[in-house]
Design goal:
Blueprint (H helix, E strand, L loop, with lengths): L4 E6 L5 H7 L3 H9 L1 E5 L18 E7 L5 H12 L1 E7 H6 L11 H8 L23 E3 L6 H13 L10 H7 L5 H5 L35 H10 L4 H8 L4 H10 L1
Parallel strand pairs: 1-2, 1-3, 3-4, 4-5
This protein binds iron/sulfur cluster (3 copies).
């Protein structure tokens, strides 16, 4: 029987989510043995000079890291979608536009002029957008970076045709289960846990630090209610804005607009 054919693709991103795949170590080798990983530039000894033209066949599953930031990327993404039965995104860049989406509420030409000696040579769209803004996405895995074990669960689920067992509830649920003292209630720290999805293992609160939302908004997050609590602690509206304006700003703002 033919092994499922997988492609792992990257757009605008830091590669950290692809590195989280390698963090699976022995388990990754097992995955590689049970599937055909037909495209994965991060995992090759040398760059593939042919780039995207190298695919000659269909993928059973496309795994996509990174946001869409250039015209060329948007065309390549359409090609990937057309050639793949299923498509999943990994990480905040692919799922929510990433920290690079901060430019969506600013002037990209100003950023280019301030950072690059030849700004006209920089190919960039005015906005950085998640993959779901361009094509149908079958599943979005959150995190910056993703949790390796959750990636393994999602991959296995797609190959077996079952729903991934990845929670959509808040980080607070995970935090309470671990019995970690609440930094928001006990210390009035601006913890985004109530609106952030679980999955990181409660890294920040377990070190007595407030969550800054790197796993993105939980399903049905009431962001404005949490911001009102923060304002009651003395934070200004602008300071609240800056707490949300990080790697998941695109999705946090989208949910705020929906109310
Ligand atoms: S989501 Fe975070 S870790 Fe993953 S590629 Fe983007 S910036 Fe890197
Ligand atoms: S510390 Fe943060 S994540 Fe934990 S329960 Fe309190 S608000 Fe929720
Ligand atoms: S606690 Fe929040 S900011 Fe810290 S790793 Fe987890 S989701 Fe990310």
């Amino acid at each position: 029987m033919a092994k499922p054919r997988i492609g792992i693709f990257k757009f605008t991103s830091c590669d950290g989510c692809q590195l989280s795949i390698f963090n699976l170590e022995e388990e990754f080798l097992q995955i590689a043995g049970l599937t055909e990983i037909a495209y994965f530039q991060e995992g090759q000894d040398a760059p593939d000079g042919n780039g995207f033209q190298a695919w000659a066949a269909h993928f059973d599953l496309a795994v996509v890291e990174g946001s869409i930031s250039t015209e060329r990327q948007s065309k390549e993404l359409l090609d990937i979608r057309e050639n793949s039965s299923r498509l999943i995104t990994i990480g905040a860049c692919a799922t929510a536009g990433g920290v690079q989406a901060l430019r969506n509420w600013a002037d990209v030409s100003e950023f280019k002029a301030s950072e690059y000696p030849a700004p006209d040579a920089v190919e960039a769209l005015a906005e950085s957008t998640p993959i779901s803004a361009h094509v149908h996405v079958d599943y979005e895995l959150w995190g910056c970076p993703i949790n390796s074990a959750e990636f393994s669960e999602v991959l296995a689920s797609f190959l077996l045709g079952k729903t991934p067992g990845v929670p959509g509830y808040s980080l607070c649920m995970e935090c309470k289960r671990k019995g970690i003292p609440c930094v928001l209630v006990a210390g009035q720290a601006p913890c985004l846990g109530p609106v952030t999805r679980a999955g990181c293992g409660v890294l920040c609160p377990s070190l007595n630090r407030a969550c800054y939302g790197c796993f993105g908004p939980k399903d049905g997050a009431n962001i404005m209610a949490l911001m009102r609590i923060f304002q009651g602690f003395g934070y200004t509206e602008n300071q609240c804005r800056m707490m949300l304006d990080k790697m998941n700003t695109y999705k946090f703002r989208e949910m705020e607009e929906k109310g």
